[in-house]
Amino acid sequence: MAQPNESPPEVLLVDDDADLCAMLVRYLDQDGFAVTAVHDGEAGVTAALRGAVAIIVLDIGLPGIDGFEVLRRVRAVSAVPVLVLTARGDDVDRIVGLELGADDYLAKPFNPRELAARLRAILRRARRPAGSGPGPGRHFAVGDVVLDTGARTLTRTGEPVPLTATEFALAEALLREAGHVVTREALSGAVLGRPWSPLDRSLDTHVANLRRKLGPAADGGPLIR
């Protein structure tokens, strides 16, 4: 995962299942991640806001404050990528997690290999393009919406619009093809890094979140059609 002379990405695992955490720490450490595990919501918030975390794996069912409240508190001050773990078949938890700003979700039980693949995909989206640094990047502008790939910023009427890594990737994919129809299949591959499934509502939820953050078009209609 990490390049030579590059520190492995720091993963914060927040889950009250100590046995699952121990297994995932071993697996992800061997797969090139550096993992810290905590077992309740308050500890998760504290660890998440220390600033050194590259990505968070967050269970919803936690003692004390639940995963939704952890996500709310983290999103209030940080855009760190978050993958939520949900009970299999619980669509409500998945959708609520995404609406609160999670980048992706994974249903329990899951294959650790799939978790590692999801983490890599999210981290790729969160990285700046190679060599872009803080200097000028590529700009995409449609009306008063301007996206800068170098600075990884999106503004509307000059005002910054805070986006998660997944929302930024989605906005970039749509702006690159502005004026053209982009299929769900193409967006799922470009943004989520996996084939689109009719049962996977995550892409629809990310589009809804982006619509809400951008607001309507000047004529009052939807900015994203």
Residue-averaged pLDDT: 89
Q: Secondary-structure element sequence?
A: EHEHEHEHEHEEEEHHH
List segments where confidence is low: pLDDT < 50 over at least 5 consecutive residues. Answer: 129-136
What is the CA-CA span between the terminal residues?
37 Å
Helix percentage:
25-40%
Question: Radius of gyration over alpha carbons?
Answer: 18 Å
- In spatial order, strands of the major sheet run 2-1-3-4-5
Shape, please?
globular
Q: Structural class, judged by helices and strands?
A: alpha/beta
Say how many strands there are. 9
How many H/I helices? 8
Strand content: 15-25%
Query: How would a textbook summarize the main sheet?
Result: 5 strands, parallel
How would you characterize this protein structure?
This protein is of the alpha/beta class and 225 residues long. It has helices at residues 18-30, 41-48, 67-75, 91-99, 112-126, 165-176, 184-192, 202-214, and strands at 10-14, 34-38, 55-59, 82-87, 104-108, 139-142, 145-148, 153-156, 159-160. A 5-stranded parallel β-sheet has the order 2-1-3-4-5, sandwiched between helices. Strands 6-7-8-9 form a 4-stranded antiparallel β-sheet, covered by helices on one side.
